[in-house]
Amino acid sequence: MSKGKVRILWSGITGRTGTCAKESVKNCDYAEIVAGVCRSDDNYYKYNQLDDIKEDFDIIIDFSHKDSFDKVLDYAIKKKKPIIIGTAGLSEEQEQRFIDASYVIPVFRGGNFRFYVKKFIDAVIEYAKDHDDLTIVETHYKNKKVPSETAKVVVQKVKEKTGKDMKIESHLLYEERINDWKVDDIHCRVVGFEELADDLLKIAYLMKNKPAIGVYDLDRLLDESKELIYKDNEENYKIK
Predict the structure, then answer these.
(1) Bridge partners, residue 135, by sequence
(2) How would you label 206-216 residue by residue, b for 16+ Cβ within 10 Å and e otherwise?
């Protein structure tokens, strides 16, 4: 059992992931959302009110908009708090900013935040060691931005671990919030954002006391947090 809850300031609290996270924390014994930031809802802080935040927090989760990102990152640096970055569409300049910041505050930025998807990525890497002409075929809901960050992470990890190139083939077909990735017979499907919200709470707990020594992703975080997390009989990652 974990000791104490990580206190989260959630940027983008009214978005799909933030909305799911507000439900997830109701039954979570290791994380809580103490304050939220958004662009339009008067029930939460706005991005021009960051210095007005009164609640004590341990970490920032940012799933907002690229136009708000710089303010959030500056605030994290000012408050000397870790930040988990899930905001899409960041410019090269913004990405370099959080890389530089990762030696000042702990920074997590992963194309993948889901523990279940990590198992898929690991399986693809093993498969790639013995196969060539590799393609990841992804099929998503119709307004998904492609290629997805997850597909790009798979390509990157395969290149790093095997030296082999992989192609990405993207399709937008689903009406529902469904994401599929396949490499030959290896298949991964996620539906909705509930599991993503749950996994972000785990990541927040694990990132709380990490040092500022470069950007973390899920692989690095798990490698350095073995004493805090375990797999159950169904190989789901759990907080101890």
Answers:
(1) 167
(2) bbbebeeeebb
Domains of the chain and CATH, by start: 6-112+194-239 (3.40.50.720), 115-191 (3.30.360.10)
Question: What does the block give as tokens for 217?
Answer: 């992703």
Tokens 């939460």 label which residue?
A: 44
pTM: 0.89
Strand order in 59-62's β-sheet? 31-37, 6-11, 59-62, 83-85, 107-109
Say which residue the tokens 């909305």 belong to. 19
What does the pLDDT profile of the chain (240 residues) look like in tens digits?
A: 456 899 999 999 999 999 999 999 999 999 999 999 999 899 999 999 999 999 999 999 999 999 999 999 999 999 999 999 999 889 999 999 999 999 999 999 988 999 999 999 999 999 999 999 999 999 999 999 899 989 999 999 999 999 999 999 999 999 999 999 999 999 999 999 999 999 999 999 999 999 999 999 999 999 998 777 777 777 788 888
